[in-house]
């Protein structure tokens, strides 16, 4: 039986050395990981997409994505490469990878109290998790054959060319139809104008002829005297 709670003190770990064990909070003894889950999706020959869930801690000031090539048994063999991110995104497209290559990819939560040695610890031998990071082992896909890639580009070029050709042909047809319509309307208007002028000229001829006939009738004929 412990008479005083302060008499039972911690010796290890060093961070709690000398502190009363029963006075420590559960959060201090069992802290929550910064990166709760990490998934690698959309794995291709030279890229992949990382998605992770972070704990709701305001102490996270950003993230760092690190990756190194590994052998089949998980031993790191390549140089360490990193990408720095802000605290906003929880996904990242990792590019610049080699086809058919295994990688150890980690996401690190950055806080003011993060230890610099913990960041490099993941990439020394094998995967060793801690509270600030989460890692995943992935392998990139086979490279896309050149023929398939060329066929895709050729199909895109043919499709674009056909689209442009159809656009110009349709535009030409519309313009030609409009020009023909305008010409027909102009010819129709001209015919109507000519027809109206010819009728008016004929009426004038008849009027002049009637006046001449009337004058001839009123003139005295030969052998007759005007009264």
From TrEMBL:
The keyword Calcium does not apply. Residues 32-130 form the Fibronectin type-III domain. Keywords: Membrane, Transmembrane, Transmembrane helix. The chain crosses the membrane at residues 154-176. InterPro entries: FN3_dom, FN3_sf, Ig-like_fold. It comes from the Eukaryota. This is Fibronectin type-III domain-containing protein. It comes from Scylla paramamosain.
